[in-house]
Design a protein that fits this description.
heterodimer, A: 7-stranded mixed sheet, two-stranded antiparallel sheet, 10 helices, globular, B: about 575 residues, mainly alpha
């Protein structure tokens, strides 16, 4: 089924003037999955200028400076969190992105929560990206095991197909046995059997590797068999005219700088759709990657994101202005994402009401490569657990030092209904972040 | 085990890593579990004593025969996967864009530990398997199957013959039955070729196809010895980046690969094949870090001449040069560094200011020894890859020499350091602006090991063009190599030609080439134990006059090539 619709879907997209918006209809009975808490993680590259990012004013009565100002429109739906440090692990950008969602432990929170709350959905967790694989491309925030990255999918068309590939498209399913499903299931079962035979010959470390492989086979098998499905009968996804050109060998169309903003919008829409349709309960979205070489056309910038992040001492200098423009862009995107979540019905309220969204980055100050006083933002009300419209400051609250960001990870897990009290680093104690909930 | 001269070298070489790792005291003690470059330095600083005992101690093998690596599964890279599918079924290499990119660890795409199969991999593999099975059946069903559908034995014969190539070993009787069972009418609807497709798809999803699984068979001494078939796979993926061909599988079957002579004979055949050359090219690209050349952002305002055509010409130059030295030349570090010729097409000749060879493909052009071009250090691909988008980079180029050519790993800058590069200044040279590193004591500890090397490249701008002046000021490309060997006196030089001459003579450079080849072919970061093997092979390399081609052969002749040990 996956296989058949792969072709029909690609054929559709290949047709000139791609149908837009694109609508597909689910061919089987849908089950409702709304109302549960969903989780989303967003990454933006290369830190901020702290004095131009953090809110000024009171905890509930604050204004946003130049860099974060585009979030003004949605600030009632946000919680700004500063004064948390990403302890342990490696210094620099790569070390930062590696511990952003792991707290320096072996697994990232998106993958972990997928394992915990994603077993009733077709995809345990979904990692999307915007030009994360461009150029050096190293450094995902998602880890399935120690040092084992989950690379985000940068191509929104293939991601759509993977997430909604079981939708039938305009053609009605042919009568009779579903041969595609029967055959794909045979292939997967054969593969699982081979894997289990190989597994018996191995030690623990390599068995762990095959267990990850086995989980993946079983996840895809459940999708093929339709034993877990999403809840949408119809999906409308506007591809904005985006199509992959065969002529683009490198960069691929979806990695091109001139497509950055459009691909970003498609990925955000896709994440909202996936959460709203119960295709997954956990999604992550990475904008570019650490030490980002990306230049986003239309911002009036002259240098790439990371080069601008070393803005020097002059906040009015051209590097600083470029850096500000990049950060404002990422804030505009977050504002759009929050608005889309807010406009999507879910359960008795909106998707935003039932989601906890976390946005972070890999370092604090672009100039300095440090991991203290990180600029984090939360959005959504997590089913009423999180009061928004606040600005919280944790500087010096852990025995005079910044509190640990791993406690925020614990709080996010708790909001998602997973009762853990530590995640990664515990050098500043266990439990969630005080003063965040209730 | 006796303390040999080689053992002493091992410890000394590791001490060099220690010296660099300790160039400042700000290193985070926790270590970075995610493969940052600091790991190696930290291993070195914590492990020099261990190295002594592990390198020479109770292990069942001597340094001369190497240390068996761990029994690991190595997921095929996308490049290996595409080549394998193509060779197995006689189809074009399938597009692999939908398979997630490999994590790059130490600059290499084949890290065994970091590469795992996620749901997105399965989705991509499933899609490709179906697509490729259709294509193979459409294109050449009779050849693929090799027997008549009417023959009741045909499914079994087909499974046996394809299986031996797909899993790189003969199938057991059980396994044959399990694959023949895919011809079940309830799955095929009675269509024989549906059965063929199912078998093809299933082999393409088999873990033993998707991973290299050279696990070996347990011996009395607790080590595992690779079977002949596993040895064949180790040779073909190591030297070709793809599955064994029929000749290699037959050599495995006949027992030819059970001793070092048989292995050597096949290794020589593989290396001399065009695929062997392509694999060596790929190694150089990953070793030299030039894979990003075609993709790197360069500021078009600063470098308007850095066109796609020029980038491709530089990539082609590197391939042509490496192939020439490694397969037609004497395959030495010396020739790689000191060649008095270049391989350029007309586009690149114009860029280098050399006479045009009258060719779109790289052709050999002689250059005077010691001139501004010639050898690895002055390849456009190397210079442009290790530079900023809008300027040269003494730091990147210095780190390139330390880490890629001397194998001396440097720690990342300490946390909380202000890493702002000096602002562009139209009144100063890059060298003058970067002078702060040597003025600031925090920076100086490490940058005194980096910048004086990188300054030697200052006659080349951010895209590798030669320049005698910068901003109207004369270029100063003088520098020094310190710590070439542990405790060695600094050696002064002026420009890349003199730097290349120093590096070409150094044993460290030869040992480093061995280290990187081992890294590339083993799919893991060499450990303190591997240092023993690397040093042994480096000694042989130097004794052989530096012939890297022979070094590849020396490595497959080691007992360690066919031995593995449990890692847990």
């Amino acid at each position: 089924m996956l296989i058949n619709t792969r072709r029909s879907f690609l054929r559709m997209l290949g047709a000139a003037g791609v149908a837009s918006p694109l609508a597909l209809t689910l061919g089987r009975n849908a089950i409702a999955a709304s109302g549960d808490v969903k989780v989303m993680f967003v990454y933006m590259p290369d830190g901020v200028i702290p004095s131009l990012w953090h809110p000024t004013g009171g905890a509930t009565d604050f204004t946003l400076p130049q860099m974060s100002a585009p979030l003004e429109a949605v600030k009632d739906d946000l919680v700004f969190v500063r004064g948390l440090k990403m302890y342990a692990g490696g210094a620099t950008h790569e070390g930062g992105v590696a511990k952003l969602l792991t707290g320096d432990g072996p697994m990232s929170l998106d993958v972990f929560l997928g394992e915990q709350i994603g077993t009733d959905t077709p995809h345990k967790s979904v990692q999307l990206g915007v030009a994360t694989n461009f150029q050096n491309g190293s450094g995902s925030m998602s880890y399935i095991g120690p040092g084992q990255q989950v690379a985000p999918d940068d191509n929104p068309l293939s991601a759509f197909e993977r997430l909604f590939g079981d939708l039938q498209g305009p053609e009605a399913p042919p009568p009779g046995p579903d041969w595609a499903q029967i055959r794909s299931t045979r292939v997967i079962d054969r593969s699982i059997d081979d894997l289990q035979r190989l597994r018996t010959r191995l030690g623990t470390t390599e068995r762990d590797k095959l267990d990850i492989h086995l989980d993946a086979l079983q996840e895809v098998e459940a999708q093929i068999k339709g034993t877990v499905t999403g809840s949408c009968e119809q999906v409308v996804w506007n591809t904005e005219g985006f199509a992959v050109s065969e002529a683009d060998s490198y960069p691929k169309t979806w990695e091109k700088e001139e497509e950055f903003a459009r691909v970003g919008k498609l990925q955000m829409d896709l994440a909202v759709l996936a959460l709203s349709c119960g295709v997954t309960r956990v999604s992550s979205l990475m904008w570019s990657h650490p030490v980002s070489p990306t230049r986003i056309p239309g911002l009036g910038t002259t240098v790439a994101n990371h080069d601008a992040s070393h803005y020097g001492v002059d906040l009015g200098g051209s590097l600083a202005l470029d850096y500000i423009a990049y950060k404002r862009f990422f804030c505009e995107q977050l504002a759009y994402l929050v608005q889309q979540l807010g406009a999507t019905p879910d359960g008795d309220g909106s998707l935003l009401d039932n989601t906890i969204l976390f946005m972070g980055t890999d370092i604090n100050d672009g100039n300095q490569h440090d991991h203290g006083d990180m600029p984090f933002v939360l959005a959504g009300r997590a089913g009423g657990q999180l009061a928004t419209g606040r600005s919280l400051d944790y500087r010096g609250t852990a025995g005079g030092e910044d509190d640990a960001h791993s406690k925020l990870l614990v709080s996010i897990a708790n909001m998602a209904g997973v009762p853990i009290d530590e995640f990664g680093y515990t050098g500043k104690g266990t439990g969630g972040l005080s003063g965040l909930l209730g | 085990m006796r303390t040999t001269k080689r053992g002493t070298t091992t410890i000394a070489a590791m001490a060099a890593v220690l010296a660099l790792g300790g160039c400042y005291q700000g290193l985070d003690g926790g270590g970075d579990p995610f493969g940052a470059a600091t790991d190696g330095a930290e291993d070195g600083s914590g492990g020099s004593g261990e190295g002594e005992s592990e390198g020479e101690g109770e292990g069942p093998l001597s340094c001369e025969q190497g240390t068996p690596g761990p029994r690991v599964l190595r997921l095929l890279t996308r490049r290996e996967y595409a080549a394998t599918v193509s060779d197995l079924l006689g189809v074009e290499p399938p597009p692999v864009d939908e398979i997630p990119v490999e994590p790059f660890i130490d600059g290499y795409d084949n890290d065994a530990q970091a590469s795992v199969v996620t749901a997105r991999h399965i989705d991509a593999y499933m899609g490709l398997a179906a697509q490729v099975a259709d294509q193979a059946v459409e294109q050449s069903a009779p050849t693929l199957v090799g027997c008549m559908p009417e023959d009741p034995e045909c499914p079994r014969l087909f499974v046996e013959s394809l299986g031996r190539r797909a899993l790189r070993r003969p199938l057991t009787g059980d396994e044959v039955e399990l694959y023949v069972a895919l011809f079940d009418p309830e799955a095929t609807d009675g269509d024989f070729y549906e059965g063929v497709r199912l078998v093809v798809r299933s082999f393409l999803m088999a873990p033993e196809l998707l991973y290299r699984s050279e696990l070996g068979e347990l011996r009395d001494d607790g080590l595992y010895r690779l079977t002949g078939y596993e040895t064949a796979a180790a040779l073909s993926y190591g030297l070709w980046g793809t599955m064994p061909d029929d000749e290699l599988l037959d050599a495995a079957a006949s027992g030819e690969l059970d001793d070092a002579e048989g292995i050597e004979a096949q290794a020589r055949r593989l290396l001399d094949h065009p695929r062997g050359r392509a694999q060596v090219d790929e190694f150089f690209t990953q070793w030299l870090g030039t894979g990003a050349l075609l993709l790197a952002n360069k500021d078009a305002q600063v470098y308007p001449g850095f066109t796609p055509e020029l980038r491709e010409s530089m990539a082609a130059e590197q391939r042509a040069f490496v192939e020439h030295v490694m397969f037609e030349g004497n395959a030495t570090i010396e020739e790689l560094l000191l060649a008095d010729y270049v391989f350029v097409n007309d586009t690149l000749a114009d860029f280098y200011g050399l006479p045009r060879p009258g060719s779109n493909v790289p052709a050999r052009v002689e250059v005077p020894a010691g001139s501004e071009r010639g050898g690895l250090l002055t390849l456009g691909s190397v210079l442009a890859s290790h530079a900023h988008p809008n300027e040269s980079s003494p730091v990147k180029r210095g780190v390139f020499v330390r880490e890629r050519l001397l194998c001396q790993e440097l720690p990342s800058p300490p946390p909380d350091v202000d890493a702002t590069p000096p602002q562009l200044d139209p009144g100063a040279t890059t060298r003058e602006r970067f002078g702060q590193h040597s003025a600031d004591p925090v920076c100086r500890a490490c940058h005194q090991l980096i910048d004086p090397l990188g300054f030697g490249f200052e006659a080349y701008d951010g895209v590798g063009a030669f320049r005698a002046t910068e901003n109207g000021l004369p270029i100063d490309a003088s520098g020094e190599v310190s710590q070439l060997e542990p405790g060695a006196e600094p050696l002064a030089f002026d420009g890349t030609a003199e730097l290349a001459a120093i590096l070409a003579e150094a044993r460290t450079t030869n040992a480093c080439a061995v280290h990187h080849w081992v890294r590339f072919t083993s799919g893991r970061r060499p450990t303190a134990q591997d240092a023993c093997t690397i040093e042994t092979i480096a000694d042989q390399l130097v004794a052989n006059g530096g012939d890297l081609h022979e070094m590849f052969i020396d490595l497959v002749r080691l007992d360690a090539f066919v031995l593995r040990q449990d890692q847990d």
